[in-house]
Amino acid sequence: MTIYKARTLADSYKLRSKAKNINELNGRGEYRDLTNFVISNILLQFKINPTYTIVDVGCGDCTLFKQLLKKFKGVYSGKLIGILPNLEEIQRVERCIIENHEIKSNVIALQHGTVENINLPDDHCDLLVINSVLHGAAENLKDARTALIELIRIIKPGGQLYIGELPSVDEFADRNYNKDSIISWLKWIYNQRGFSEFWVNFLRVVKCMISKEPFIIEPKKKFYILPEDFIEMMKNFEVQVIRYYPHQELNQNKVPIDSVSRWNYIFVKKSS
Known about the structure:
Blueprint: E1 2-5, H1 9-16, H2 32-44, E2 53-57, H3 63-71, E3 79-84, H4 87-99, E4 108-112, E5 125-131, H5 134-137, H6 141-153, E6 155-167, H7 182-193, H8 195-209, E7 214-217, H9 227-234, E8 239-250, E9 256-269
Parallel strand pairs: 1-7, 2-3, 2-5, 3-4, 5-6
Antiparallel strand pairs: 6-9, 8-9
Helix pairs in contact: 2-3, 7-8
């Protein structure tokens, strides 16, 4: 087994690009149903015009764009731009799109960028989505502010910003296991989340042991902020809050439940 200890979120996803299951690039491992559920819920929040330019920062395997193109049955005439921090991710996702014969579209473009430097012009997109990224890309409030300035910069006046899965608490604070020990981590999963999730992760470890699949020890320092504090902070930017609400997940029986720690936010950029 090849064990990697990632220093940053970008390092982690560079390593994930080596995994056989491309859903690793969505940060959910074997849980493809969860990826589809989360992305479907994001799209339900917006009335999307097929001429929109949409930017997905940290787009994973482009599930959001794939679902959108399926919905519009090939008549989407806007631009869909996925931002990824590593060339390895871009190459992996581009191959996947080419090999997927259901996606016969030239509207998806992938390009290198980070939350601090998206490499797009001012006032460029109608909708910007950044889901389950900001908390990992930013380690503190200063980092988050820098990222938000860059995100808002590329949105057109009147355009919308979706920030998803932003934790309200330190999700690692109560995890009383050796953060770099795989055995300690598995024991914690068994005690806290039950046999079913333990078994899934145990099989994942075994798969990595007998193959070239990478096993990645993720960075544990993440940005988090209470919803009321985040809304107050966003008043300093040129956006207006539309709504915020608990993120939804799927439980072990695949029933939707509210997250106890993560929130989703929708903002609109103010007109000049």
